[in-house]
UniProtKB/TrEMBL annotation:
It comes from Ideonella azotifigens. This is 4-hydroxy-tetrahydrodipicolinate reductase. It catalyses: (S)-2,3,4,5-tetrahydrodipicolinate + NADP(+) + H2O = (2S,4S)-4-hydroxy-2,3,4,5-tetrahydrodipicolinate + NADPH + H(+); (S)-2,3,4,5-tetrahydrodipicolinate + NAD(+) + H2O = (2S,4S)-4-hydroxy-2,3,4,5-tetrahydrodipicolinate + NADH + H(+). Belongs to the DapB family. HAMAP family: DapB (MF_00102). Homotetramer. Pathway: Amino-acid biosynthesis; L-lysine biosynthesis via DAP pathway; (S)-tetrahydrodipicolinate from L-aspartate: step 4/4. Coiled coil: none annotated. Catalyzes the conversion of 4-hydroxy-tetrahydrodipicolinate (HTPA) to tetrahydrodipicolinate. (S)-2,3,4,5-tetrahydrodipicolinate binds at residues 160, 169-170.
């Protein structure tokens, strides 16, 4: 804990899968305190205590009023949807609240908006907050450089039945890392699914395959398929705890920053 006291964290999407995991993680952390809980208009949980579902009383009520939910916060952790995140961003900019953004599925112009806001407030944004995935990103860059010729690259991801965006933000980030390492532009070479008479595989492409089902937390594999061998680099999340702990790490990292756009490499010192 700093001399200024515990880090005051607000959670957006407080009733979501990640929102609840984050509230639990904040409650369990000695150096953080829950300072606000946001959910959207119409949520039946509005007005109830943010930790009621844990059988605890935090004194923090879930609200859809952004100014009220952010009034006491230093950092907002946001795992919602792109339109929600952008609405929260505008209020954070107005109030000078830092942001950890875990939401995925942004369009390029929405990412540009976040980049512009980072000139005024400190923002950490990453499609995957787990330490393991971010280490895997480094391994992928190394493998892709070495397997630049003669290996077809395919990215396969699997998630729970509720996930609304595809491919996952992590799969897309893996695609970016691999494409950069082999000197290709992902916008030019990505193939998102195949059907019908597709013709033989174009070796310059990077393919994506998406699986949705049950309660799969998040699996990602990058396959380098050559002649006579194949290499698979896989990461599997077995609990959302890993994303919540990574998010708290990011919030602590932002505490010392006035502005700028950061990613998980910055937080983990992997840059
Ligand atoms: N970076 C990372 O490490 C990870 C990223 N994610 C990403 O986080 C996001 C959320 O995932 P998950 O928790 O599983 O999703 P959930 O649907 O369980 O939770 C989303 C929460 O945000 C709320 N919400 C939805 N739309 C809006 C909006 N427009 N404004 C404000 N609040 C809104 C939802 O409310 P309601 O239920 O009423 O719709 C809900 O409370 C996804 O984009 C996912 O890909 C997930 C895990 C890890
Ligand atoms: O929606 C999820 O659950 C997840 N989303 C993130 C993504 O899109 O990459 C991260 C993780 O895979 C879980």
């Amino acid at each position: 804990m700093s001399a200024a006291g515990p880090l005051r964290i607000a959670i957006a999407g407080a009733c979501g899968r990640m929102g609840r995991m984050l509230i639990e993680a904040v409650q369990a952390a000695d150096d953080c305190v829950l300072a606000g809980a946001l959910d959207r208009k119409g949520s039946p949980a509005l007005g109830s205590d943010a930790t009621a579902w844990l059988g605890q009383a935090s004194g923090v009520k879930i609200t859809a009023d952004l100014a009220e939910g952010l009034a006491k916060a230093q950092v907002l952790i946001d795992f919602t949807r792109p339109d929600g995140t952008l609405a929260h961003l505008a209020e954070c900019e107005r109030l000078g609240v830092k942001m950890v953004i875990g939401t995925t599925g942004f369009e390029p112009e929405q990412k540009a908006r976040i980049g512009a806001a980072a000139q005024r407030i400190a923002i950490m944004m990453a499609p995957n907050m787990s330490v393991g995935v971010n280490v895997v990103m480094q391994l992928l860059a190394q493998a892709a450089k070495a397997l630049n010729q003669g290996y077809d690259i395919e990215i396969i991801e699997a998630h729970h039945r509720h996930k609304v965006d595809a491919p996952s933000g992590t799969a897309l980030a893996m695609g970016e890392v691999v494409a950069k390492a082999v000197g290709r532009d992902l916008k030019e070479c990505a193939v998102y699914g195949r059907e019908g008479v597709t013709g033989a595989r174009d070796p310059s492409t990077i393919g994506f395959a998406t699986v949705r089902g049950g309660d799969i937390v998040g699996d990602h594999t990058v396959l380098f398929a050559g002649i006579g061998e194949r290499i698979e680099i896989t990461h599997k999340s077995s609990s959302r705890v890993t994303y919540a702990q990574g998010s708290l790490r990011a919030a602590r990292f932002l505490a010392g920053k006035a502005s700028g756009l950061f990613d998980m490499n910055d937080v983990l010192g992997l840059s």
